[in-house]
Design a protein that fits this description.
The protein has 242 residues and is mostly helical. The protein has one domain. The protein is 86% helix and 0% strand.
């Protein structure tokens, strides 16, 4: 598997998921908070299952737990730094005429920042298991659907035309592709780099899930069905891995 294929897989996984979310919003006017919250919860569960039952075990089977732990800690640190960067971005965004447009732009940048480590995880998995990358790409696509709905809801209120909106997934998918190529190249240098990169990817994704996706799902719909969807996502993830 070469780096161009990795970039293409990342671009398609992210792009299709976002496009589906946008189309669903415009076709069916998806505004049900419970449904959107459950979608975020389910994808949180899926990503947790992939990391805990596939990515981390693949790293640990190489008998370098020290590198795995170091990678996870670095990944969590990167997640913290990304979170610290977002308030600075919201302050610095040079859009003053429309609060909604500023919110939409900030949302795009936030997704773009998360796409880099997610793409990195995808690229790292390519050096570990071709089967794992297919499953993770599918999870990323599902995870992108509620993000696409959120983008569509926000941008629709700014009166931006649909053809312009449909170009945003291409840009965000390309950013994930860059992350995928970076992860693929770095993890392919040496066996120890693969182990550390797997830990790094796991740390970043787990931070995003715990800090962003799960709280967001509860914020959108703070009900029992969001929890059920998260648990269902974990179970489905385990079934996909076996």
């Amino acid at each position: 598997m070469n780096m161009w294929l990795i970039a293409a897989i990342a671009l398609v996984a992210e792009g299709i998921g976002l496009e589906i979310g946008i189309v669903l919003l415009y076709l069916f006017r998806v505004k049900n908070s419970r449904l959107i919250g459950m979608l975020f919860g389910a994808t949180s569960g899926l990503m947790t299952a992939i990391i805990c039952f596939d990515v981390l075990p693949q790293a640990l089977e190489r008998n370098r737990i020290d590198l795995v732990v170091a990678g996870v800690m670095i990944g969590v640190t990167i997640g913290l730094l990304l979170d610290d960067f977002m308030p600075c971005l919201e302050t610095a965004v040079p859009i003053k005429n429309s609060k909604m447009l500023k919110a939409a732009f900030t949302l795009v940048v936030g997704i773009a920042l998360h796409n880099i480590p997610e793409g990195f995880a995808l690229g790292t998995l390519a050096n570990a298991s071709s089967d794992a990358i297919q499953k993770f790409a599918a999870v990323l696509m599902l995870h992108s659907i509620p993000e696409g709905i959120a983008l569509a809801i926000t941008f629709k209120q700014t009166k931006i035309k649909l053809p312009v909106l449909m170009m945003i997934p291409v840009v965000l998918g390309s950013i994930m592709g860059i992350g995928g190529v970076t992860g693929y190249i770095l993890s392919g240098i040496n066996e120890n780099y693969i182990v550390t990169a797997l830990g790094l990817a796991a740390g970043i994704i787990l931070y995003i899930v715990c800090e962003e996706l799960m709280p967001e799902s509860r914020k959108i719909w703070n009900g029992r069905m969001t929890t059920v969807a998260t648990i269902a996502g974990i179970i489905v993830g385990v079934l996909l891995l076996h």
